[in-house]
Amino acid sequence: MFRHTLRLDRLPLLVTGVALLLYFPSSLWELSSKPGSGMTQGLAPYLAILLAVVWAAPMLAREFETGTSVWAWTQGTTRSRWFVSRAALPILAAVVSGLALTVAVMVSGMHRPVFVAHDHMSEAYLSTHGPYLVLSALCAIATGLAAAAATRKAVPAIGISLIAQITMTLLMPKLATMVAPTTTVTFGRGVTDYQIAILDGHQTSMTRLSDGGVTVEYQANGHFWEAQLVAGAVFLALTAALLAYAWRTVRTLPGKA
Fold first, then answer.
1. Residue ranges per domain, the chain?
2. Where are the alpha helices (DSSP H) in 44-113?
3. Which end of the chain is more exposed for a tag (fewer CB within 10 A), N or C?
4. 172-205 pLDDT, tens per residue?
5. CA end-to-end distance (rounded Å), the chain
Protein backbone atom coordinates (compact mmCIF):
# COMPACT_ATOMS: atom_id res chain seq x y z
CA MET A 1 0.00 0.00 0.00
CA PHE A 2 2.91 2.34 0.69
CA ARG A 3 4.16 1.93 -2.90
CA HIS A 4 0.68 2.73 -4.14
CA THR A 5 0.64 5.86 -1.97
CA LEU A 6 4.03 6.93 -3.33
CA ARG A 7 2.76 6.56 -6.87
CA LEU A 8 -0.38 8.58 -6.15
CA ASP A 9 1.52 11.34 -4.35
CA ARG A 10 4.58 11.53 -6.59
CA LEU A 11 3.70 14.99 -7.96
CA PRO A 12 3.12 16.78 -4.60
CA LEU A 13 6.15 14.93 -3.22
CA LEU A 14 8.24 16.25 -6.12
CA VAL A 15 6.91 19.80 -5.73
CA THR A 16 7.61 19.75 -2.00
CA GLY A 17 11.10 18.36 -2.55
CA VAL A 18 11.97 20.98 -5.15
CA ALA A 19 10.62 23.81 -2.97
CA LEU A 20 12.60 22.54 0.00
CA LEU A 21 15.81 22.23 -2.01
CA LEU A 22 15.53 25.85 -3.10
CA TYR A 23 15.92 26.96 0.49
CA PHE A 24 19.46 25.58 0.78
CA PRO A 25 21.06 27.64 -2.03
CA SER A 26 19.29 30.63 -0.51
CA SER A 27 20.69 29.75 2.89
CA LEU A 28 24.25 29.33 1.65
CA TRP A 29 24.09 32.49 -0.47
CA GLU A 30 22.84 34.44 2.51
CA LEU A 31 25.57 32.97 4.71
CA SER A 32 28.36 33.92 2.30
CA SER A 33 27.10 37.09 0.64
CA LYS A 34 24.20 38.62 2.59
CA PRO A 35 24.57 37.73 6.29
CA GLY A 36 21.70 39.07 8.33
CA SER A 37 19.40 39.75 5.38
CA GLY A 38 16.85 37.32 6.82
CA MET A 39 15.68 36.11 3.41
CA THR A 40 15.66 32.39 4.24
CA GLN A 41 14.14 33.05 7.63
CA GLY A 42 11.43 35.23 6.10
CA LEU A 43 10.46 32.64 3.50
CA ALA A 44 10.61 29.58 5.77
CA PRO A 45 7.09 29.76 7.31
CA TYR A 46 5.47 29.64 3.87
CA LEU A 47 6.45 26.02 3.25
CA ALA A 48 3.60 25.03 5.59
CA ILE A 49 1.15 26.80 3.28
CA LEU A 50 2.54 24.82 0.35
CA LEU A 51 2.10 21.54 2.22
CA ALA A 52 -1.54 22.26 2.99
CA VAL A 53 -2.55 23.72 -0.37
CA VAL A 54 -0.53 21.60 -2.81
CA TRP A 55 -0.54 18.30 -0.98
CA ALA A 56 -2.91 17.56 1.90
CA ALA A 57 -6.10 19.30 0.76
CA PRO A 58 -6.21 18.26 -2.94
CA MET A 59 -4.87 14.77 -2.21
CA LEU A 60 -7.81 13.64 -0.11
CA ALA A 61 -10.42 15.77 -1.86
CA ARG A 62 -9.65 14.28 -5.27
CA GLU A 63 -10.03 10.79 -3.85
CA PHE A 64 -13.59 11.73 -2.90
CA GLU A 65 -14.30 13.53 -6.19
CA THR A 66 -13.14 10.65 -8.37
CA GLY A 67 -14.70 7.96 -6.21
CA THR A 68 -11.43 6.09 -5.69
CA SER A 69 -11.97 6.28 -1.94
CA VAL A 70 -15.21 4.30 -2.19
CA TRP A 71 -13.53 1.85 -4.57
CA ALA A 72 -10.73 1.29 -2.04
CA TRP A 73 -13.27 0.63 0.71
CA THR A 74 -14.80 -2.16 -1.38
CA GLN A 75 -11.44 -3.91 -1.81
CA GLY A 76 -11.09 -5.09 1.76
CA THR A 77 -9.44 -1.91 3.06
CA THR A 78 -11.07 -0.40 6.11
CA ARG A 79 -11.70 3.33 6.13
CA SER A 80 -9.37 3.82 9.06
CA ARG A 81 -6.54 1.97 7.32
CA TRP A 82 -7.19 3.87 4.10
CA PHE A 83 -7.08 7.21 5.89
CA VAL A 84 -3.89 6.35 7.74
CA SER A 85 -2.22 5.16 4.54
CA ARG A 86 -3.14 8.38 2.71
CA ALA A 87 -2.14 10.65 5.60
CA ALA A 88 1.12 8.92 6.56
CA LEU A 89 3.31 10.16 3.69
CA PRO A 90 2.42 13.88 3.91
CA ILE A 91 2.81 13.74 7.69
CA LEU A 92 6.26 12.17 7.29
CA ALA A 93 7.14 14.76 4.65
CA ALA A 94 6.04 17.53 7.02
CA VAL A 95 8.38 16.32 9.76
CA VAL A 96 11.34 15.91 7.38
CA SER A 97 10.66 19.26 5.70
CA GLY A 98 10.35 21.06 9.03
CA LEU A 99 13.63 19.64 10.31
CA ALA A 100 15.49 20.36 7.07
CA LEU A 101 14.12 23.88 6.91
CA THR A 102 15.14 24.56 10.50
CA VAL A 103 18.69 23.56 9.61
CA ALA A 104 18.64 25.80 6.52
CA VAL A 105 17.52 28.78 8.60
CA MET A 106 20.16 28.12 11.26
CA VAL A 107 22.88 27.95 8.61
CA SER A 108 21.70 31.18 6.99
CA GLY A 109 21.92 33.00 10.32
CA MET A 110 25.37 31.82 11.40
CA HIS A 111 27.00 35.14 10.43
CA ARG A 112 24.22 37.48 11.48
CA PRO A 113 25.50 40.96 12.39
CA VAL A 114 25.45 42.03 16.01
CA PHE A 115 22.44 44.32 15.50
CA VAL A 116 20.20 41.28 15.00
CA ALA A 117 22.21 38.41 16.46
CA HIS A 118 21.04 39.05 20.02
CA ASP A 119 17.33 39.06 19.18
CA HIS A 120 15.71 35.65 19.80
CA MET A 121 12.26 36.91 20.70
CA SER A 122 11.20 38.52 17.45
CA GLU A 123 8.27 36.96 15.62
CA ALA A 124 10.55 36.09 12.68
CA TYR A 125 13.05 34.26 14.90
CA LEU A 126 10.46 32.45 17.02
CA SER A 127 8.60 31.14 13.98
CA THR A 128 11.73 29.63 12.38
CA HIS A 129 13.67 28.11 15.28
CA GLY A 130 13.16 25.37 17.81
CA PRO A 131 10.38 22.89 16.96
CA TYR A 132 8.17 25.60 15.45
CA LEU A 133 8.63 24.75 11.75
CA VAL A 134 8.06 21.02 12.30
CA LEU A 135 4.90 21.57 14.32
CA SER A 136 3.52 24.20 11.95
CA ALA A 137 4.07 21.82 9.01
CA LEU A 138 2.22 19.04 10.84
CA CYS A 139 -0.65 21.41 11.59
CA ALA A 140 -0.75 22.43 7.92
CA ILE A 141 -1.16 18.80 6.83
CA ALA A 142 -3.91 18.28 9.39
CA THR A 143 -5.65 21.45 8.20
CA GLY A 144 -5.62 20.27 4.59
CA LEU A 145 -6.91 16.80 5.48
CA ALA A 146 -9.70 18.21 7.64
CA ALA A 147 -10.74 20.70 4.94
CA ALA A 148 -10.82 17.91 2.35
CA ALA A 149 -12.88 15.63 4.59
CA ALA A 150 -15.33 18.45 5.34
CA THR A 151 -15.88 19.61 1.75
CA ARG A 152 -14.94 16.54 -0.32
CA LYS A 153 -14.15 18.98 -3.14
CA ALA A 154 -10.64 20.04 -4.16
CA VAL A 155 -11.23 23.74 -4.85
CA PRO A 156 -13.10 24.55 -1.60
CA ALA A 157 -10.64 22.44 0.39
CA ILE A 158 -7.68 24.30 -1.12
CA GLY A 159 -9.33 27.68 -0.48
CA ILE A 160 -10.11 26.88 3.15
CA SER A 161 -6.60 25.51 3.72
CA LEU A 162 -5.00 28.57 2.14
CA ILE A 163 -6.96 31.01 4.28
CA ALA A 164 -6.40 28.97 7.44
CA GLN A 165 -2.65 28.67 6.89
CA ILE A 166 -2.13 32.32 6.04
CA THR A 167 -4.03 33.24 9.19
CA MET A 168 -1.95 30.80 11.23
CA THR A 169 1.29 32.09 9.75
CA LEU A 170 0.42 35.67 10.70
CA LEU A 171 -1.18 35.14 14.11
CA MET A 172 0.71 32.29 15.78
CA PRO A 173 4.03 34.17 16.23
CA LYS A 174 2.10 37.06 17.80
CA LEU A 175 0.41 34.66 20.20
CA ALA A 176 3.77 33.14 21.12
CA THR A 177 5.36 36.51 21.93
CA MET A 178 2.40 37.56 24.09
CA VAL A 179 3.52 35.22 26.87
CA ALA A 180 6.80 37.08 27.36
CA PRO A 181 6.74 40.02 29.81
CA THR A 182 8.46 43.27 28.91
CA THR A 183 11.60 44.42 30.71
CA THR A 184 12.52 48.11 30.92
CA VAL A 185 16.09 49.38 31.03
CA THR A 186 17.36 52.99 31.07
CA PHE A 187 20.66 54.12 29.56
CA GLY A 188 22.30 57.40 30.45
CA ARG A 189 23.59 60.12 28.15
CA GLY A 190 26.09 58.93 25.58
CA VAL A 191 24.59 55.51 25.03
CA THR A 192 25.53 54.04 21.66
CA ASP A 193 23.44 52.09 19.18
CA TYR A 194 25.74 49.13 19.81
CA GLN A 195 24.90 49.06 23.52
CA ILE A 196 21.20 48.99 22.70
CA ALA A 197 21.63 46.39 19.96
CA ILE A 198 23.31 43.84 22.22
CA LEU A 199 20.44 43.78 24.69
CA ASP A 200 19.63 40.13 25.32
CA GLY A 201 16.17 40.18 23.75
CA HIS A 202 13.74 41.81 21.32
CA GLN A 203 13.31 45.57 21.53
CA THR A 204 9.63 46.58 21.59
CA SER A 205 9.99 50.34 22.13
CA MET A 206 12.58 53.04 22.72
CA THR A 207 12.03 56.49 24.26
CA ARG A 208 14.53 59.34 24.17
CA LEU A 209 14.84 61.15 27.50
CA SER A 210 15.32 64.87 27.96
CA ASP A 211 18.71 64.36 29.63
CA GLY A 212 20.04 62.57 26.55
CA GLY A 213 19.45 59.08 27.87
CA VAL A 214 17.25 56.35 26.45
CA THR A 215 14.59 54.05 27.93
CA VAL A 216 14.24 50.74 26.14
CA GLU A 217 11.54 48.12 26.58
CA TYR A 218 12.38 44.60 25.42
CA GLN A 219 11.38 40.97 25.78
CA ALA A 220 14.24 38.93 27.20
CA ASN A 221 15.60 35.91 25.32
CA GLY A 222 15.10 33.85 28.45
CA HIS A 223 11.43 33.52 27.49
CA PHE A 224 12.23 31.87 24.13
CA TRP A 225 11.36 28.32 25.17
CA GLU A 226 8.32 29.52 27.07
CA ALA A 227 7.03 31.09 23.85
CA GLN A 228 7.91 27.93 21.91
CA LEU A 229 5.98 25.86 24.45
CA VAL A 230 2.86 27.97 23.97
CA ALA A 231 3.06 27.82 20.18
CA GLY A 232 3.85 24.11 20.27
CA ALA A 233 0.93 23.32 22.55
CA VAL A 234 -1.47 25.18 20.26
CA PHE A 235 -0.07 23.47 17.15
CA LEU A 236 -0.27 20.01 18.71
CA ALA A 237 -3.81 20.57 20.00
CA LEU A 238 -4.98 21.81 16.60
CA THR A 239 -3.21 18.99 14.78
CA ALA A 240 -4.76 16.33 17.02
CA ALA A 241 -8.24 17.87 16.78
CA LEU A 242 -8.10 18.30 12.99
CA LEU A 243 -6.77 14.79 12.36
CA ALA A 244 -9.42 13.33 14.66
CA TYR A 245 -12.10 15.28 12.82
CA ALA A 246 -10.85 14.14 9.41
CA TRP A 247 -10.60 10.50 10.51
CA ARG A 248 -14.06 10.52 12.09
CA THR A 249 -15.58 12.21 9.05
CA VAL A 250 -14.07 9.64 6.70
CA ARG A 251 -15.44 6.81 8.84
CA THR A 252 -18.99 8.22 8.71
CA LEU A 253 -19.15 9.24 5.03
CA PRO A 254 -21.87 7.59 2.92
CA GLY A 255 -20.64 4.78 0.74
CA LYS A 256 -19.77 1.14 1.00
CA ALA A 257 -17.36 0.23 3.74
1. 2-180+222-252
2. 46-50, 57-66, 68-73, 79-108
3. C
4. 999 999 888 999 998 888 787 777 777 888 888 8
5. 18
